[in-house]
C-alpha cells in the first residue's frame, strides 16, 4: 500500500453528495481485530488475498500482496494501484495476478483464481500517486476455476455508490507489513473521520485504522453480516497519520467500473 503525501491542500469538496459530515479529529475512533470466525463462512469467504507482479519505477519487476473481494460473476474489486502502477504506461499493468479467497496461514480453501483482464479508473492510470488517489479503484475479471466462477464458489458482496459520507464501515484485509504478517484477515469498524487532502474531486474519505501494507484493496463494507455492500476500500495512508486510512469516494465512477467486470 503506497503511502500518501504527508501534507496537501484540501480542495474543500463535500464529495458530491451534498452533505457536510461532522467527523472526528485525529486520531479518530476505530475498533480493529483479527477475524475470529472461520474465513470460509459468508461474507468473509468473499474476501481474499491478492498476489501479483508489477514493474517498479527503475524497470525491475517486484512481487506484491494486497486484498480484494468478490463482487459478482467473475469479478473482484481492489485498489487501482494493485492492478496498475499509475505511470500512464501500458507497462504499468500488473501481471500474474492471483486471487485467493479466504486465505489463511498459506492455505487456499477455495483454490486460486487467476486473472483474465484488469481494469482501473483513468485518473489513477494517468496520474498515480498522489494525483490519482481520488480514483484509486481497480477491478479484475478472473478465469473460472474448475468450470466455476469465483462468485459461484464463494458468493459476492453487494455494492453501494453515491451514498452520504456519514457512514460506519467495516474495513477488511490482509495487512502484511509489521507488526502484521499477511497470514490473517483483520477487520476494522470505524465511522467517517474526515475528507482526504490529496488532489482531485470528489475528495477521498478517511477512517481510523492501523492496518498496514497488504490491506490495500480490501473492501469497506456497509452492513457487514446484513446488507454486505462494498462502499469503499483501503487505498492509502498518509505518512504522518499511521492511525488513519483513506478510500476514494464511491460515486458514479465506481459504479461504471463495477459494470465492466460484474458479468
What does this structure look like?
This protein is mainly beta and 263 residues long. Helix content is 10%, strand content 33%. It is built from four helices and 17 strands. The strands form four sheets. It has a six-stranded mixed β-sheet with strand order 2-11-10-14-15-9, with no helix packed on it. It has a six-stranded antiparallel β-barrel with strand order 3-4-5-8-7-6.
User: What class, by secondary structure content?
Assistant: mainly beta
The value of Rg in angstroms is: 17 Å
- Could you list the spans in which at least 5 consecutive residues all have pLDDT below 50? 1-18
The count of strands amounts to 17
Strand content: 25-35%
Which descriptors would you attach to this protein?
263 residues; mainly beta; 6-stranded mixed beta sheet; 6-stranded antiparallel β-barrel; 17 strands; disordered N terminus
Compose a concise summary of this entry:
The protein has 263 residues and is mainly β.
SSE topology:
Blueprint: E1 3-4, E2 31-34, E3 47-55, E4 61-72, E5 75-79, H1 80-83, E6 95-101, E7 113-120, H2 122-127, E8 137-142, H3 150-154, E9 158-159, E10 168-173, E11 186-191, E12 194-195, E13 205-208, E14 219-222, E15 229-233, E16 237-238, E17 244-247, H4 252-261
Amino acid at each position: 500500500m503506497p503511502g500518501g503525501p504527508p501534507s496537501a491542500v484540501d480542495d474543500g469538496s463535500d464529495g458530491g453528495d451534498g452533505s457536510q459530515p461532522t467527523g472526528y479529529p485525529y486520531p479518530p475512533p476505530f475498533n480493529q481485530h483479527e477475524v475470529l470466525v472461520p474465513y470460509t463462512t459468508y461474507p468473509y469467504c468473499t474476501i481474499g488475498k491478492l498476489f501479483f507482479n508489477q514493474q517498479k519505477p527503475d524497470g525491475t519487476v517486484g512481487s506484491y500482496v494486497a486484498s480484494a473481494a468478490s463482487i459478482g460473476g467473475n469479478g473482484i474489486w481492489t485498489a487501482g494501484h494493485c492492478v496498475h502502477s499509475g505511470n500512464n504506461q501500458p507497462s504499468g499493468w500488473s501481471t500474474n495476478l492471483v486471487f485467493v479467497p479466504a486465505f489463511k496461514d498459506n492455505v487456499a480453501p477455495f483454490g486460486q483464481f487467476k486473472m483474465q483482464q484488469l481494469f482501473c479508473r483513468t485518473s489513477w492510470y494517468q496520474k498515480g500517486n498522489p494525483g490519482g488517489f481520488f480514483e484509486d479503484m481497480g477491478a479484475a475479471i478472473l478465469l473460472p476455476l474448475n468450470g466455476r466462477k469465483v462468485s459461484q464458489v464463494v458468493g459476492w458482496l453487494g455494492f453501494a455508490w453515491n451514498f452520504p459520507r456519514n457512514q460506519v464501515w467495516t474495513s477488511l484485509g490482509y495487512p502484511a507489513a509489521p507488526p502484521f504478517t499477511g497470514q490473517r484477515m483483520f477487520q476494522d469498524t470505524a465511522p467517517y473521520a474526515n475528507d482526504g487532502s490529496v488532489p482531485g474531486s470528489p475528495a477521498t474519505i478517511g477512517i481510523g485504522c492501523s492496518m498496514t501494507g497488504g490491506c490495500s484493496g480490501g473492501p469497506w463494507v456497509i452492513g457487514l453480516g446484513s446488507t454486505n455492500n462494498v462502499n469503499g476500500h483501503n487505498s492509502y495512508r498518509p505518512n504522518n497519520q499511521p492511525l488513519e486510512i483513506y478510500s476514494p469516494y464511491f460515486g458514479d465512477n465506481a459504479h461504471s467500473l463495477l459494470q465492466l467486470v460484474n458479468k
